[in-house]
Amino acid sequence: MRILSAIFIFVFAVLSISVFAQDPAKKKLTQYQPRIEGEWWSITGQPDLGEFSSDKQQPVDFTVWQAKDDTWQLMSCIRGVNSGGKGRLFYRWETKNLKDTAWTPMGIAMQADTTLGEENMGLQAPYVFKEKGKYYMVYGDWNNICMATSEDGKTFTRTKNISGKPSLFAGPRTNPRDPMVLKVNGIFYLYYCAHNAKDDRTGQAQGSIYVRASKDLIRWSEPKVVAEGGSAQRQTQWYGGDIECPFVVQYKDAFILFRNQKYGKDYLNTQYSSDTPLDFGINDDKYLVSQLSVAAPEIIYSGGQYYIISLKPGLNGMKMAKLNFEKVR
Does 22 have pLDDT greater than 70? Predict the structure, then answer.
C-alpha cells in the first residue's frame, strides 16, 4: 500500500506541475477592459418558492447556459428562504430568446442532500458548462466544491467520488464557494474563493481566489492563489467579501477576472486583465483595469456578441446588457 500511495502522490505532483506550467517566452502585456453598451433590461424577478417563500429571500450567485434544446437557462442560489439550516436552495428560469425581458420561472431546481454529506440547505453558487455533449455543474455545499452532471442541460444528477459523495475537494480556508470553470488548451481551470473563519485583525488579506486544474474533470491539482489583497480588499462590506464571485473570461490573448466586493445598491466589481489564467495580482493592483457597478456578474457569448448578467441592486432578480472589451491604452 505504501508503494501505491507513493506512486499516486508522485503522479499527482507531476499533474499539478504540468497544468500550472507557464510559457517562459513572455509577450508584451496587452490588457482589455469591459465596457457596458446601451441599457440594461430585466430578465428575472423574485421567484415563488411556495413553502420556502420568505420576505427576506434574495436571488444571488447564478449561472446562465444553453440547454440541449437550445433554450437558455438561468439557475440561481436563493438565500434567506424559509427553511432550516443555511436557508439556501437553487431555482431555475428558462427562455427561448436570450433577449427576452421576462424569463419563465421553472421552479426549485436543487436542494442540499444531507445524506451525501452536504450542509443542510447550504447550496451555493452553481456554474454550468458543456463538454463533449455533456453538461457539468460545479457548486458549493458550504464546506466543499461539488459536481453534478446532466444529459439535457436541465436535470442534474450529483456525481460521486470514491467515498460516494459529490465533493471534488475542500479548502484551503473555510466556506469554499462560487466556482466557475474555464478551459484553456485542453486544461480545465476551476476558480473559486474562500476566506478565514474569523477576521484575524492583521490587515492582511482574509480571503483568496484560488484555481485548481484538471485534464479529466476527475483529478484536480492542489490549489494556487491567483488573486487576493490589493485595493479591492479595502472596498468590501465584510472582511472576507472582496474575493467573491470570481469569473474569468478569455478575450484574445488576455484573461479578464471579474472580482466582486459589494452586493446591493452600492454594488461593486473590480476587473483585472492578465496574460495568464494563473495570476491576477497578489496584494497588488498590477493587473487592475476597471471597476463596474454590478454584482456577481456572469459573461456569456452568443451570436458574435458578449453579454453581461448581473444581480439587480435590490437583490430581487437579474438584469442583462451588451458588453464589449476595449484595449487599455
Answer: no
CA distance 214 to 77: 26
CB of 264 within 8 A of CB of 315? yes
What confidence score (pLDDT) does residue 281 get?
A: 98
60-to-43, 49, 104, 315 alpha-carbon distances in Å = 14, 15, 18, 7
Note the pTM of the prediction, 2 decimals: 0.93
Report the b/e string of 53-71 with b at 16+ CB within 10 A: eeeebbbbbbbbbbbeeeb
| Residue span of the structural domain in which 144 resides | 33-327
For residue 138, tell me if it sits in a domain: yes
Separation CA 98–CA 101 (nearest Å): 9
Q: Residue 101: what pLDDT? A: 97
Residue 79 contacts residue 60 (beta carbons within 8 Å): yes
Residue 21 has pLDDT above 90, yes or no: no
| C-alpha–C-alpha distance, residues 276 and 245, integer Å | 19
Residue 10 forms part of a structural domain: no
Tens digits of per-residue pLDDT, 204-217?
999 999 999 999 99
Distance between CA atoms of residues 161 and 273, nearest Å: 35
pLDDT at residue 20, rounded to an integer: 73
The CATH number of the domain holding residue 309 is 2.115.10.20
